[in-house]
Amino acid sequence: MKRKWKLITLITLFSLLNCCIPYSFLNSFESNRIFQMLYKASNHLLSLQTESGAFIPSELVAYYNTYIYIHSYVFDALLDAQDASIKISPDVIIKAQNYLLKMRYMDCWNFTLHIPCDTDDSAIATLTLLRSGIKEENISKSIEKLNSSITSEGYSKLWITNNDTVYMYFVENNSYSNYYGNVYDSIILTAGTVYDLFIYNYSIYKNVIDKGIIILENSQEGNGAWLSKYWYPGVFYGIFLYTRLIALNKPNSNALLKTYEFLLNNQHSDGGWGRNESSNPLDTSLALISLHYLNLVGFMCKFTVLKGINYLFHEQYNNGTFLEVPLWTSAPYSYYQGKILTTVFAVKALALYTTDINDNYLSGVFLQIFIICLIALTCIEYSNYFWEKNYPHYYLKEKFRQWKIIYEIRTRLLKYRKSE
Description:
- This protein has helices at residues 2-46, 67-83, 90-102, 119-131, 140-148, 165-173, 175-180, 187-201, 206-219, 236-249, 254-265, 281-296, 302-315, 339-389, 392-414, and strands at residues 117-118, 156-157, 159-160, 185-186, 328-330, 333-336.
- By secondary structure, the protein is mostly helical.
- It has one domain.
- Strands 1-3 form a two-stranded antiparallel sheet.
C-alpha cells in the first residue's frame, strides 16, 4: 500500500508542477506587468480627445488629412482596453461616436475634401462604430456602401462611387484618380471590408465573406506572409488583417499554419519583429495580435508571445507611448506614422493578452484538476488489483496504456482545433 500512495503522490506532484506553476506565474507576474503597460498607454490615448470628440495627436506626420483613420484606430484600441478592464468613461465613447457620425459623407468616409469615400477609412470607421454599440439604423447604410465596393470576383475597390458631383469632379480634375483608378483592387482593402461584413451579420454576407477568404488564401506567399500591393510597407499589417478574418471564419485553413510558422521563424533574438532585419514596436504589436488569433484556433505560442511582450516592455516610453514607425508610405511621403499609431497597436496587443493570460489561468486550473483526478482514480482502481495478483509486467503494460490515453486527452485539450 505504501508503494501505491508513493506513486500517487509523485504523480500528483508532477501534475502540479506541470500545470500549476506556469499558469500561476503568468497570472501573478505577466498579467500585472502587461496591465501596467496597457494602463499607461491607454491613458495617453485618452488624453488626445478634443472637445469635438476626435482623437487628434499633435505629432502625427501626414501629407493628407488622416484624422478619420487615426481617430477610428485610437477609438478601436480604447474599446480593446475597456474589454481588458481599463475604465473608459461613457462620455468619451459617445463623443467619439458623434465625431465619426458628423464626419460621415453619404454614409461613408473619405480622408480629405473633394474626393469620394474610400474603403480604407470607411472600413475602420464602420468597424469602430459597430464595436462601440452604435444602433443598427445608424450604421446599416454604411455597411451597404462597403458591400457595394466589392466586385463580382470578391475584391474590394478603393473608391466607394456614389456617382455624385463630388465624384465626377474628382474624376475630371484630380490626377490621383488617374493613378490609382476607380477599381483599384487590394487584398488589404478586401480583408478590412469583408471583416466588417462578418462582424455586422455573417449569415447575410456569407457568400461574400467566403469569396474574400479564398482570395486571401490564394494570395499568400510560400513562406506564409502576404506581400502588400497597397501602400503599407512590410508584411505585418497585412498578416494582422488576414489572420484575424481567416481564423474567425475558417480555423482549419492551411494559410494559418503557414502564417504561424512564418511568425515563429521571423521573431528576432530580442523578442521583437520588424522589417529590414531590425525589430520595432509597431510590427511587434501587429505580430502579437496575429498570434492571439492563431492561439484562438489552437496554435501554441506562449513563450513566443512572452518574448514579444518583454520586447515591448523595454520599448515603452515613460508617457506610455512607443517609437514612431511608418505604417503607410508612398515615396517621398510617410502618410500615416507617429508615436500614437504605434501605441494604438501596442494597446490592442496588450489588451488581448491581459485577457488571454487570465483566461488561460482559469482553463489551466480546471485542466490541472481534471488530470489529477483522472490519474488518481486510475491509480486507485488498478493498483490494488495488480499488486494483489503480483503481475508486475502486466501492471506496467497496463499503466503505459493508461498514460498514453491520458497524454492524448491532455494534448487534445491544449491543442484543440475546430474542424470544418
